[in-house]
Design a protein that fits this description.
Shape: globular
Mean pLDDT: 90
Helix content: 40-55%
Number of helices: 11
Distance between the termini: 45 Å
CATH topology of one domain: Rossmann fold
Radius of gyration: 19 Å
Length: 330
């Protein structure tokens, strides 16, 4: 079976391509000209050059494939021009789904985000039933993913066979960019986390997420969402895990979110507008930290057979990969 993977050069996509090859799939990767291809270098795959905003290139990429994994997204909490995020995440999703429909793709697995899952106002764990209003989400990335998921489910109601997966916070190897989640680990390793805020998130091994995509293809019910996650942790608990793995002392200084938010606004102004570089502390990321994002991941375990590797192993692999690939200052 031939699978087309968008976003193959990214974090989840690179791990997904490897797992597909391990399980005997033929893989075609949609890659933009000039993009960083380190994540798929040397892999036995077919490369189709194209762009999510170039419909003819998508038609060519989809042609001859049986299934589609649409993983590609502009995963960033800050952009000088936010329209770039919506072009990639919303318009790009609309284009690739149209190409899949027109070329008769048998099944689509769409990689959404935990951001599209509503947590409600109580202290319970969020499930796939939770809905969110995109206008109330912090930042353009989260808003764009919510809009993209809605149009994906609309396409499913129109007859396109789609399963949606919602990864939480993936950790592990091949985070070449790195992503905002990988940046958390990297900042810890490089001594750039002098303080932390009181927040919580759900962490999952990125290799489990990759296998979860394939399980969604093989066992997932059309039109359903599946949270691919594992363990709910406070940021303080995450830092304690990293301290145990690395021997690096974690900060004991907890600061209020309002103080971190003020620093983020200052960083976006100085770094983003004055120095014309990506801010280290984006405002949207700090705003997201104002709420605990805890999830019940039992549906994927129950219906897909999703396996959850201990998150300590994922953090250990991430640390070693960053160290071995020159990301950590000596």
């Amino acid at each position: 079976m031939r699978a087309l993977v968008t976003g193959a050069t990214g974090f989840i996509g690179g791990n997904l391509v490897r797992e597909l090859l391990n399980q005997g799939y033929q893989v075609r990767a949609l890659v933009r000209q000039g993009s960083d291809r380190r994540n798929i270098q040397g892999l036995d795959i077919e490369v189709a050059f194209g762009d999510l905003c170039d419909r003819p290139s998508l038609d060519r990429a989809v042609d001859g494939c049986d299934v589609l994994f649409h993983v590609a997204a502009a995963y960033t909490f800050w952009a000088r021009d936010p329209r770039v995020i919506y072009e990639a995440n919303v318009r790009g999703t609309e284009n690739i789904l149209a190409a899949a429909r027109d070329r008769g793709i048998k099944k689509v697995v769409y990689t959404s985000s935990e951001s599209t899952i509503g947590t409600g106002n109580n202290c319970g764990l969020a499930t796939e039933e939770g809905e969110v209003d995109p206008d109330k989400l912090p930042g353009d990335y989260k808003k764009s993913k919510c809009l993209a998921e809605k149009l994906t489910l609309k396409a499913c109601h129109g007859g396109l066979p789609v399963v949606v997966v919602n990864p939480t916070v993936p950790i592990g190897r091949y985070d070449v960019k790195p992503t905002p989640t990988g940046r958390l680990v990297l900042d810890f390793l490089n001594g750039r986390m002098p303080a932390y805020v009181n927040t919580g998130l759900n962490v999952v091994d990125v290799e489990d997420v990759a296998r979860g995509h394939i399980l969604a293809l093989e066992r997932g019910r059309i039109g359903e969402r599946y949270i691919l996650g594992n363990r709910n942790l406070t940021l303080k608990e995450i830092l304690a895990i990293l301290e145990k793995i690395t021997g690096i002392k974690a900060s004991r200084l907890r600061i209020p979110v309002w103080l971190a938010l003020g620093a983020a606004y200052a960083d976006e102004f100085i770094s983003g507008r004055v120095m014309r570089r990506v801010p280290r502390v984006p405002v949207a990321g700090v705003k997201a930290a104002r709420s605990f994002r805890y999830f019940d991941c039992s549906k994927a375990v129950r219906e897909l057979g999703f396996v959850q590797t201990p998150v300590e192993e994922a953090f250990d692999r991430a640390v070693r990969w960053f160290q071995q690939n020159g990301y950590v200052r000596r």
